[in-house]
Amino acid sequence: MKEYTKRSYLIVLIFLLVALVFLVKLFRLQVLDSTYKQYATNNVLREVVQYPARGLIYDRNGELLVYNRTAYDLLITPREVKQFDTTLLCNLLDVTRIELEEGIKKAKNYSWYKPSILVKQISPENYAILQEQLYKFEGFHSQARTLREYSSTAAAHALGYVGEVTSNDISRDAYYKPGDYIGISGIEKTYERQLRGTKGVKKNLVDVHNRIQGSYRNGREDIPAQIGQNITTTLDLDLQLYAEQLFQNKKGAVVAIEPSTGEVLAMLSAPVYDPGLLVGRVRGANYAKLLADTLKPLFNRALQAKYPPGSTFKTVNALIGLQEGAINTHTRFTCNGPGSYPIKCTHNHVTPANVVDGIRESCNPFMWNTFRNIVGMYPTAAEGFREWRNYVQNFGIGTILGEDFSNALKGDLPSEELYNRIYGAGHWNALTVRSLAIGQGELGVTPLQMANVASVVANRGYYYEPHIVKEIENDTVRSSINDKHEVGIDAVHFEPIIEGMHQSIKGLYYLPGIDYCGKTGTIQNNQGIEHGAFEAFAPQDDPKIAVFVYVENSKWGASYAAPIAGLMIEKYLNDTIANNRKWIEERMMDANLLDSGEPE
Q1: Please, what's the largest Cα pairwise distance for the chain?
Q2: Are 374 and 437 in contact (CB under 8 A)?
Q3: For the range 477-483, what are the long-range contacts, defined as Cβ-Cβ under 8 Å and sequence gap of 24 or more?
């Protein structure tokens, strides 16, 4: 009996110990450890990312350029998915069964427990229909976000566009997650941090049918999104739209700058494209079409084309000669004698020519002799060329101008090292690289750089950093835009250059009530018809606008580039085009230089 009692006590003790172990375990799990509590909460709690609206973008006069519209993403959490009607979901989303299955597979590969975007950028109209049926699809939920919308088709290259982040973007900045969007080009890229805002999180309670029942803890744990900062650009929308009208059916670029500030008034790369094509679910297909277009509409010629400047560069060469003392206002060079070798004059004008004549008549021999004299002032050709090159670089050529243009290129400013590689050290001289004197040869500039050259001449020797953002909401723009950049040429040397530019436009390009200065350029190329260019500024004595126009395959600078520049100047300063010049406006707008035939 005693043995039985002892065994009974032992069994009871064992049960008590087991029960105690379970009680301790349950206490630890339910009270001390929040893991299971959190897991249970997660079954009824959904965290939804709150995407902020990107900042709005305005022109210099307060005209809205870029704003936002609402769209929705459908997300999937694979572990929560139950059997569902695939056909119904495909119809609601307007996707194929294959697309849906591939999306689900991709989400599973990413994570069974974390939500992934299954279908992006669903329109409000389609989302309204989807939302009514979403309770039938466990494991699926939606989130709102915004897409860019444009008030017009203007300034696509300058404004840029937004696209989905890449793995490199995510690795560089922990803010971004797969499926997020980021500025890819233009202002959208350069000012991404200001425009994007800050994401938030909203916690919702959901029922067994995955329907939202309300905020978790009355929203006390929500983190509100902070909308992006609005940006006011330096662009003049009217001038930008006008430039795009003038450049219909043409290839090339236009950049207009306010010389006294460096503010970019217009920036055009042609052919243009509608920025709305790169928004929404059609973006991928449209991007592929634009990329395949032989006219290269996505290529930003204003910032990335490395054009030979041709005769528009002669202003720079002549200024360097005057500053270095290689020439003066009394210097004259003949167009037909031995001194003109090896570059002959292509124009019939007075000879010998002085510097004013040389600019007005665009005299090649004058520029060649000036270049030869500059290089010849130094013990070796390499030293003379090096000094000439330093001056050119001071004008902003061969450099990235400012920080507002993320995709800008330096262009090609040949170096001493390049010619040493080509010809051998000591085996080249001014004659070897003579084409540089007239803006040809190995020289390649961007239209932005040449518009800056026009600003330097307008300002008589200095420029402010070209920039395209004027104001940032609740922030300040870079102080560097107010820095004055001297080019190392005395102001007195600009007067004969400006006089030559002023004389060159009399009669041919007269603008009513406006004294302005300009220089044409006709550029040889290896693709048939010559390119045309024109640099100008106005008014002559109180410049408000400096402009550079480059029209590919337009035969001469005087044919299209000069009239387009004149019309833009007139439009900006007078706000209208004189009746007796309407025929020029119509001719520019109607001209189609994309045809294979030679332009008139």
Answers
A1: 141
A2: no
A3: 478/403, 480/403, 481/261, 481/262, 481/402
Q: What is the mean pLDDT of each run of 10 residues along the chain (600 residues)?
A: 62 73 66 49 68 95 95 89 90 89 90 85 87 88 88 95 92 90 95 94 72 71 90 98 96 97 97 92 89 95 96 97 96 76 74 92 93 95 96 96 92 95 93 94 96 98 97 93 96 97 79 90 84 96 97 90 96 93 93 71
Query: Following DSSP, what letter does each residue of 305-370 receive, concatenated?
Result: --B--GGGGHHHHHHHHHHHTS--TT--B-SSSGGGTTS---S---SSB-HHHHHHTT-HHHHHHH
CA distance 324 to 490: 10
Digit-coded pLDDT (tens) for 395-406: 999 999 989 998
Same fold: 48-207+214-233 with 237-290+303-590: no
Token readout for 48 is: 């939804």
Query: Tokens in use for 353?
Result: 């020519």
Q: Which among 195, 197, 214 is positioned nearest to 206, based on CA atoms?
A: 214
Radius of gyration of the chain (CA): 33
Cβ contacts of 325 within 8 Å, gap of 6 or more = 377
CB 591 within 8 A of CB 599: yes
Q: Is 144 exposed, middle or buried (0-12, 13-18, 19+ CB in 10 A)?
A: middle
CA distances in angstroms from 543 to 151, 253, 260, 457, listed in the order given: 30, 21, 8, 10
237-290+303-590 maps to CATH 3.40.50.620: no
- Say if CB 371 and CB 317 are below 8 A apart: yes
Contact assessment for residue 370 and residue 326, using Cβ atoms and an 8 Å cutoff: yes
Report whether 250 contacts 594 (CB < 8 A).
Answer: yes
Reported as a single tens digit per residue, the pLDDT across 2-38 is 555 666 667 777 777 777 777 767 666 555 555 444 4
Q: How many CB atoms lie within 10 A of CB 564?
A: 29
**CA distance to 239, 555, 575, per residue, from 579 (Å):** 19, 27, 13
**Would you tell me how many other CB atoms lie within 10 Å of the CB of residue 260?**
14
Query: In whole angstroms, what is the distance from residue 50 CA to residue 219 CA?
Result: 13
Report whether 553 contacts 595 (CB < 8 A). Answer: no
Strands (E), 96-138: 116-122
pLDDT, one tens digit per residue, over 114-140 is 888 888 888 888 888 888 888 888 888
Please state the domain extents for the chain: 48-207+214-233, 237-290+303-590
The torsion angle over the Cα atoms of residues 185, 187, 190 and 191, rounded to 10 degrees, is -130
Domain 48-207+214-233: top CATH class:
alpha beta
Q: Which of 387, 382, 365 is nearest to 432 (CA)?
A: 382
